[in-house]
Description:
23% of the residues lie in helices and 26% in strands. Helix 2 packs parallel to helix 3. By secondary structure, the chain is an alpha/beta fold. It is globular, with a radius of gyration of 20 Å. The chain has one domain: Stationary-phase Survival Protein Sure Homolog, Chain: A (3-Layer(aba) Sandwich). The chain is built from six helices and 13 strands. The chain binds manganese (II) ion.
Amino acid sequence: MDKPLILVSNDDGYDAPGCVALATALSEFADVVVVAPEREQSAKSHAITLSSPLRHRVVAENVHAIGGTPVDCVYVALFHGELLPRRPDLVASGINHGPNLGMDIHYSGTVAAAREGAMRGVPAIAFSSLARDVVPAAPIAAELCRRMLAAVMPEGQPALLNVNFPRGEIAGVRATRLGHRHYAEGVDVRTDPRGREYFWIGGPGGVEHGGVEGSDTQAVDAGYASVTPLSIESTLTAHLGLAAYVAGDGTADESPGDP
Length: 259
Ligand code: MN
């Protein structure tokens, strides 16, 4: 039987240790092609480059660096037609240096690379780690990819899984939902050497996890890796009544907030 083909991308750059380690671990059982950003693209979310050139560099056999975002990389890999020998069976993104827990997924380039695969019909999985050294998690990440390839896929939207590895020893792996992760927000106002004001956002650091039962934040805090299934279907069905009221199209006759 032919080996599966796995497209590896990330947001830390093609040469990031987590990307190299993931690709190496996956090579044990799969054909692997890396198409990843030339430079770090963390927190670029689902950005796509539409108005500037995307440079392409062949780094090595089956390793491509693209001068764009994580989503650019997956898009080019899937639609250029010459980077991959066939349609991939899986998109694996990471292993990101740093967590992508709870609301982090909306900012994450790591998750976006995987989401782009899923949006294009390819099952996808994103890996992030809270550990200082993300490399030791690579064999476990590869095993999770192997299990995902062996799984019977649910009907409907293509599968998109978000994995986070804890700091330190990995006690096990748990299926989770997204938790709550609160950063100490802040806008630092500083002055540049020419006397002009600038902002530095993101606060002074520090983060708290809400106590959501069965969540990714709870799992990694307890030393477990988390596996969270994500939706690419964003409609909030519970708010269709609000939408109808705001639309004023006659399908709602009172505010959903009215008693
Ligand atoms: Mn990153």
